Amino acid sequence: MRERIFSSRFLSDPSMPPVVVAEVSGNHGGSLDKALALIDAAAAAGADAVKFQTYEPQTITLDHDGPAFRVGGLWHGERLYDLYARAQTPFEWHTRLFEHARERGIAVFSAPFDPTAVDLLETLRTPAYKIASCELVDTGLIRHVARTGKPVILSTGMASREEISEALDVIKALRGGLEDISLLHCISGYPTPVHNANLRRMIDMATRFNVPVGLSDHSPGLAVPLAAVALGAVLIEKHVCLSRDDDGAVDGPFSLEPDELMALVRQSREVWQALGDAVYGPTETEADSLRFRRSLYFVRDLTEGAAVDSASVRSVRPSGGLHPRHLAEIMGRQIRRPVRAGTPVTWEHLV
User: Fold this and answer.
1) Which of 28, 103, 141, 313 has a C-alpha 20 to 30 A away from that of 286?
2) Is position 1 within any domain?
């Protein structure tokens, strides 16, 4: 069951809550023990899946000192090669990580960054692949992933509509359709200010591309992912760390600590439950309140043959009498038998 959560059928099922993915990224700080502990934390928090990134620095960039190879923002001034060397999840860890996640009962998958990473993940029977936002334009990598036949989740940070369409077309050309393909709305800002989250684009993507759509979030806190669930996100991916104070957590400033991840899991499911099913009429919770709706009541004692007027019948709470829509209709009707004030009006009272 846990590895079917990436299928289109599961993600499109309105009876299933959104999938919560704990993204480890490089927050293990180069420690296998921390990586295993992050799996434990994700499982304990109730996350549906834990995700890694599979690459080696030389397969993702060049060992170069040029200004184009320097990072800005959160990692300002660091060389790309050095950042990726620090943040990589070594290939030799993967077998242990996948085994440990499966022992803990949590789905595990990864984002490959080159064909050798895909080949490694195939040996580990990964249930799905994620294409990271920067790799959305790497049609060769997408093609290699698509050939596995596994579910593919494409992150769309920075992408134009045309670039998203091109990536989907690559998969469609190989598979004949977009079964088990989903998109993640993403803002590739680290961290992403809440006012830049642009969640309306997620809604547009779901309509425009006709595939399940979720959110890969880099904003602080829970507001953005919870809002995304309210807008229909079927998958929420959030970076996790053991502690944001850990210098080894390279993505710490936009990651959730274990208790926050647990809150995300709980609250995302509560928000999903709150969405309901758009059925009109009283819900089970409202059943007891029905008796307090307005209806027509006699507000004066009346004798047999008396005529109903606005001074003798009013629309008041509770229910039990005729619907208020009948008030004008019964004006002037005669009373069949004596009634007391506080009696609900019924047709049997009227001649």
Assistant:
1) 313
2) no
